[in-house]
Design brief:
Layout lengths: L1 E7 L3 E8 L4 E9 L12 E2 L1 H14 L6 E6 L5 E3 L9 E2 L15 H9 L8 H10 L9 E3 L1 H10 L5 E2 L1 H4 L5 E2 L4 E2 L1 H7 L9 E2 L5 E4 L5 E3 L4 H9 L6 E6 L3 E7 L9 E4 L5 E7 L3 H21 L8 H18 L7 E3 L14 E3 L8 H17 L1 H5 L8 E5 L1 H5 L1 H11 L2 E3 L6 H13 L8 H10 L2
Parallel strand pairs: 1-5, 9-12, 15-21, 21-22
Antiparallel strand pairs: 1-2, 2-3, 4-7, 6-8, 10-11, 13-14, 15-16, 16-18, 17-18, 19-20
């Protein structure tokens, strides 16, 4: 039996075809999630229609019989659609900042907080829609808005979704994961008229419908939750650290208690996830790489050298310089990076910094090591807020291609967590989790079989 898992990331769209019999990922597909060009400095727009086209092409290229489809991906963002689910706008992604744009001497974020008592982080869907309403940017004919995950599920199931999993619903803002209710005062302020429609709450492991070829399509689940579900067979004993464009540390909890510096999120199983999220992880590393790329390009131009700079060569240079530092002078005073270069969930205005610069340590290798340490430190610092809740954790499971491609991240994780670091022997933990959730929803497997299946995936080389 084969189950497909689709992960709609910020940078790439991934599809994994999973064999439920051999517990292997037998086929993988990937395509870029394209940005929509704009001069608007507050906008982070992506091609929603292009995502649908890519999903359709990927599924059509799979020759094995697909028994179910599970979907996950980036959350918080919104797409406006007509009543049939056809997209009328780009995806306003989770990095969108229209909620912090000046509006008559204030911002949509502050106005919404004053009227409802709820401060939504920039990028959350309800705040983005509120800002679009104030600036008259809601497209004509919009009958509803939805997340990109629900858009894809509705496209495959041939009908728009009226309900979302709690993991996705919470990321629009104003959802209480313990009570499983929406803040009605917030909704009434954000959406005072019947249109556009908003999503209700779906039960865990629900079906959105079936494709034209009768393949069951599960209601999507957020990428944080699917990665946790797909990678951790014993959630009480491990935490999940995800390092992608952004960063997250997730710890399972049976109760709805959570530090105020972290976010309590619904989980598809009984219980919750306590999540500490950073806005820049891999993105901060990319910014550092762009600095080196610009320096090399400027030198090549001034020296009139025909130099074609490859991104892979830049990253290899960075790793090489950092390894030289570790080999030749591991005890040298290190640079101290604050990598919150795009703010934090609680402080949009916070910016990054570099400290502890000496005459000897301001070089490429130490810049790379300091940047990586800063990315990991921002995540590791959430342990202090968790206190005794972190005590049962015996290992850190790490997801994200940045870690798999760069052992310097693993070293930093080992230093700062002082726990066993586990790297999955396969790519695509979120897509695997989505595939398993889809298989349970489609009744290809029972929920109780999942822990043993996950452990078998870890055994594969």
């Amino acid at each position: 039996m084969f189950a497909a898992g689709i992960d709609i990331g910020t940078t790439n769209l991934e599809l994994s075809l999973v064999s439920l019999d051999s517990c292997r990922i037998v086929e993988r597909r990937s395509a870029p999630v394209k940005r929509v060009a704009t001069c608007d400095p507050y906008a982070f727009l992506q091609d929603a229609a292009g995502v649908l086209e890519s999903v359709e092409e990927m599924l059509a290229s799979i020759k094995q019989p697909i028994g179910s489809i599970g979907i996950t991906g980036q959350v918080h963002g919104i797409v406006y659609t007509d009543d049939n689910g056809k997209p009328l706008s780009p995806l306003y992604g989770w990095l969108d900042r229209h909620g912090t744009e000046d509006f008559r001497g204030s911002t949509p974020q502050k106005i919404l907080a004053e009227k409802t008592g709820v401060t939504l982080p920039a990028g959350y869907g309800l705040l983005t829609h509120y800002a679009n309403r104030l600036f008259h940017r809601v497209p004509e004919g919009a009958a509803r808005f939805t997340g990109i995950n629900e858009l894809v599920a509705g496209f495959l199931a041939r009908k728009p979704l009226d309900a979302a999993d709690a993991s996705d619903l919470a990321c629009f803002g104003g959802f209480d994961p313990a009570a499983e209710t929406q803040n009605t005062r917030l909704l009434e302020e954000v959406m005072p008229s019947p249109l556009p429609k908003f999503l209700g709450l779906a039960k865990p492991f629900s079906l959105a419908g079936t494709t034209r070829s009768s393949i069951p399509v599960a209601v999507p689940v957020g990428d944080n939750q699917t990665a946790f579900f797909g990678l951790l067979s014993k959630p009480e004993e491990s935490c999940l650290v995800s390092i992608g464009t952004s960063g997250q540390i997730s710890v399972y909890s049976k109760t709805p208690s959570c530090p105020n510096t972290m976010e309590l999120r619904p989980f598809i199983m009984p219980g919750y996830l306590q999540v500490g999220a950073t806005l820049c992880a891999g993105k901060a590393y990319e910014v550092l790489a762009s600095l080196f790329r610009e320096a090399i390009s400027r030198y090549a131009a001034s020296a009139k050298l025909p130099l074609d700079i490859d991104d892979g060569a830049i990253f290899d240079m960075m790793k090489g310089a950092a390894r030289e530092i570790l080999k030749e002078n591991p005890g040298a005073a290190s640079l101290v990076f604050d990598t919150a270069i795009n703010g934090t969930r609680r402080d949009n205005a916070r910016r990054g910094s570099i400290a502890n610069i000496t005459l000897d340590n301001f070089n490429v290798g130490n810049l790379v090591l300091g940047g990586i340490d800063g990315i990991v430190r921002e995540l590791a610092d959430f342990r202090k807020d968790l206190g005794p809740a972190f005590d049962p954790i015996k290992s850190v499971v790490v997801a994200g291609s940045a870690v798999r491609k760069n052992d310097l991240f693993i070293r930093a994780l080992e230093r700062q967590f002082d726990l066993e670091i586990k790297i999955p022997p396969f790519d695509g933990g979120a897509a695997l989790g989505a595939a398993l959730i889809g298989a349970v929803a489609g009744k290809l497997i029972a929920l109780g079989e999942c822990p043993a299946i996950i452990e078998r995936f870890w055994e594969k080389d």
